[in-house]
Amino acid sequence: AGQDMSDEQETPAPPAMMQLPDGTSLPPLADGEYDAIVLGTGLKECIISGILSVDGKKVLHMDRNDYYGGESASINLNQLFQRFGAQPNPALGNSRDFNIDLAPKFIMANGKLVKMLIMTNVNRYLEFKQVDGSYVLKDGKINKVPATGTEAASTPLVGFFEKNRLRKFLVFVQDYDRNEPKTHNGHNLQRMTSKELFDKFGLEKGTVDFIGHALALYDNDGYLTKPAEEMVDRCKLYGESLARYGKSPYLYPLYGLGELPQAFARLAAVYGGTYMLHKPIERIVYNSAGEACGVVSKNEEGQPAFAKCKFIVADPTYFPEQCRVTEKVVRCIAILSHPITPGSEPSAQIILPQNQIGRTHDVYVFCVSSSHMVAAEGKYIAFVSTITNRTDIDSNLSKVASEELKDGLKILGKVDSFFFDVYDIKVPNKSGHEDKCYISRSYDASSHFEHTSDDVMDIYERIYGKPLDLSKTMVNLNPDE
């Protein structure tokens, strides 16, 4: 107990009043002075806040909502029905047995997000379990995604002669090492485009579709005209992640992604950070150079109070005027009583590449169940999502959504309950260098975390001026074998 006392004495009490740049004074909010203030407890904001804390920064993390997670929160069944203005259906099971993620994504076992979790040691608060199936649609059929030479030899996705070409390509990917010229087979992947590399291996268009979209996880075909090295690295990541645990390259936390923000909140507390829920921001305070230097919000007494900082990190909802809408995500959230994959797996991802369904964007199907403790026994939660360019969607949601998602909805079969949803993808207009406000992007339509992790890396680099080094991180999450 004596130890605790000395700790408390070391923390200086906050000043009685804080001076703002305009010369006025306000009482301090929480400790009054921080290195960073983070607004919104969405996943990206929590990861950044965790990385800043571990880096020795003092962080104040606030959210206007009284729950964690922002746009990426987990909700129970009753909350889902309330969200869409519907009457809850007790026949589906106990509401509390459901944890429905509003931005559902699977985690690549060897990917960047896992490295961030381990780097911050937040994985000690979480339990992961592997995802059972990873599928892709080709020529109207759903098949497992082959990721190794051995799987290529037996996959029904391609014909007899193409199997050998696919096998050769996957073996090349597996062996490729940018620092070992003898593994390059004479190909300069920093110059050669992905399309040129595929042509060298003589791969058919349908094969290229699933390599690019289900292995490398691109959501459009822009990568084909860019240097091939990134595509090969992404295929390698898929193969290595699959090799770690077997059935699929993906992991998912027990009880859903809502566990992640809470784990990061615990982490911040360990490092002396402060989390405040149900704290709307009254205004952002700027100095004479136009840089954000703090926020005003109400304190416990309901009086305006000021917390000072060197920079702010926030989700787009806190800075709507500094963001633009680039696209819309349309999706269906469904509760079912049966699995949806050919192998009847309790959890799975199915990717429908754009060219296979005559669209300009992939459709993603995501399915989880009681095996990850997110649904009542015998129930399944499925999401079907894609990017839509339809301008008439807001005025006619269910009609347009069912047209845009029809290829994915077909896979679901009979559903117990379903809701359509559409939201804007907002992107910050500026990097944040000038005004010290670093804003994240909205969550995309994909059913995996790779693009989300890229955004976290980007925000880190904008703050620090150097990339986040994940190479020092040893990856091992020990999910059940």
CATH class of the largest domain: Alpha Beta
CATH architecture type of the largest domain: 3-Layer(bba) Sandwich
In the predicted model, the low-confidence regions spanning at least 5 consecutive residues are 1-9
Q: How many whole angstroms does the radius of gyration measure?
A: 24 Å
Number of helices: 13
The CATH homologous superfamily of the largest domain corresponds to: FAD/NAD(P)-binding domain
Mean model confidence by pLDDT: 92
Major beta-sheet overview: 7 strands, mixed
The domain count comes to 3
Shape: globular
Count of distinct strands: 23
Beta-strand residue fraction: 15-25%
Strand order, sheet with most strands: 11-10-19-20-21-18-22
The portion of residues assigned to helices is: 25-40%
Structural class per helix/strand content?
A: alpha/beta
Distance between the termini: 41 Å
Q: What name does the CATH topology of the largest domain carry? A: FAD/NAD(P)-binding domain
